[in-house]
Amino acid sequence: MAPALPEDLAELLKRMRMPHLRAIAPDVLATAKAQRWDPTELLRVLLTEEARGRDEAAKAARRKAAGLPAGKTFDSWREADSSIPVATQSALAALEWVHRGENLAITGPSGTGKTHFVEALAHRVIDAGMRVSWFTLESLTTAIGRASVDGSIAKTLAKITRAELIVIDDIGMLPSGQAAAEAFYRLVDATYERRSLAVTSNIHPSGFDTIMPTTLATAAVDRLLHHAHVIVTEGTSLRLTDATTGRGVVALT
Fold first, then answer.
1. How far apart are CA 140 and CA 91, in angstroms?
2. What are the CA-CA distances from residue 187 to residues 2, 46, 182, 192 (Å)?
3. Is the pLDDT score of 66 beyond 60?
4. Contact indicator for 155, 186 with CB cutoff of 8 Å
5. Is residue 126 scored above 60 in pLDDT?
6. Is 83 in contact with 234 (CB distance < 8 Å)?
7. 109 contacts 234 by C-beta, under 8 angstroms
8. In sequence order, what are the residues at sequence separation of 6 or more whose Cβ sits closer than 8 angstroms to the Cβ of residue 213?
9. pLDDT per position as a tens digit, 35-59
């Protein structure tokens, strides 16, 4: 066991808000002494550890604030099983479209990997040091509805659009009324040519006027698709395939 830091030094590091350096310092100092490190190398290792710890803590905070649904990343994504061309998957995962403030609309039958792929992209965005806000149309409607009660819609939209990527998942799964259409339009308008908006739906955006008032749907979709990558997924449900092949559960023993 490496000797603990002197109490005054530990307290100083605490005051300087360097928890990660403080945690690793005893072991690093012991190694540096045994191996006769150059002081510059010692300083570099300690500060690198503090920076790494801060980066990880910031990622964890951004991930928590994003409200992502299931923790699905590219580690569990099966690119060969998706109807999205592999080249398109790779191009989207590079995130240049997010840096350019472009949109993404993924439409197709239920179970074809729309939400999984977009959530994996959202995790990639967070890992790249950016922020994500994740909604369903219902949760967005609730957030905007609460804001309309106390007159804070502009403030709420400003908070949401601090994120570089905003996601609205599963549009069209439930009926949408006037309130949902207004909330959707407000967000699309607030992000237009400023932030990237990704939507998933079992209905192509051109058909959103079948689930919400035509005037609002037309205005929202016009802005949404102006700078958008539109992806259409095909095939049978991957969830159903997993269920019928026994890959949906861990085998009983």
1. 28
2. 54, 44, 9, 8
3. yes
4. no
5. yes
6. yes
7. yes
8. 178, 181
9. 999 999 999 999 999 999 999 999 9
